[in-house]
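Quick question, first post here. What does this chain look like in 3D?
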Amino acid sequence: MVTARWFTALCYGGMMSLAIGLNLMPVFLTSLSLAFGGRTGLTQEQLGRLGAISFTGVVIGIFVAGSLADRWGAKVFALAGNGFIGAGLVGMAVAPTYGAFCATVFLLGGGAGILDMILSPLVASLNPQRRAASLNWLHSFYCVGAMATVLVGTIALRTGFSWRLTCLLLLGLPLALALAFAPLRFPKLVSGSEARQPMRHLLRQRWFAGALVAIFLGGATEMGMAQWLPAYAERSLGFPGWVGGTGLLFFSLSMALGRMAIGTLSTAVNPYVIMAWCCGLSVILFLLGSFLPVSAAALAACVLAGFTGSALWPTLLAVTADHYPRGGASMFAALAALGNAGGIMMPWVVGWVADASDLRWGLAVSGVAPMLLLPLVLVLKQGQRGPVP
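> Answer (accepted):
Ran it through. Tokens below.
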């Protein structure tokens, strides 16, 4: 058995692999529109549909793997997740039509969903005394992976390098992780002295139902901006394509720094208070990013929204794991599925509103998610239990 620290580090790498699956496509939305839509391009709804298809794959991957991980163990799913991501990248590189590209995006999302489901309970089981810190650090590496992906994609746009070849260039990480995980013996997701708490019991708990709604809104807060930022910078703010990609890069950096900061602060400050402040600030930044008349200032507000929204998802996972320490992989799967369902809904809603009005209003509407999450976080705080300050 390798050390918990080294195993955790491999999980951080797995989160970066997951990030490739969910962040490469948004950088190339304009290129994809031209490649598959001809001279008129794809509609904004069709572009938004790509994000929805990706996150549908994520949710299905989470449900399929989550129902089996407590019985089969984590190893098979760590390998399968990286394998599907690798296959999806190859499929994207060779897809001849919009329909074929949608199918490969779904496969890529499925691999990301499997990893999303398995990595959080695995890291929580490896670091039981510091779940909030370790889960925030784990999810900060999603942002690190997103930054690396966006950087590669932005350089490709800037230099005229093919987006298809870029997909193949990023194939190395999931393949390397699959090889690194293959010989390892994985820990149990719930320690042997504890009985896993059945999902049917959790679903009868009001607090858990509130946590599911909360993480749905947290996912919507994060992905509404992340999926549309490059296209918004290019189409509504008037920047060239490489600036939109750079904006997403700094958005991911902002999220990474936010999660690392919360990973440090979570042992000293009540995490519910942190989440409440993040919700309120996110609403303000979404509105500023949508309606400020100065394009550079609007883009800066969008980037800063990454910092304020970054803590919501991993901190909700951590406080729920503290509330129900025997929840196992099934609990994490339910949380991840609802969080990604928010990621399905919001990019599609942004595209739909953009077609009906414009992209500024589409982005502004996504600010409803953190606005609704704020009072819910305060309600959850009233019923908190577990190791919080």
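The CA atoms of residues 38 and 75 lie 43 Å apart.
The longest helix spans residues 206-235.
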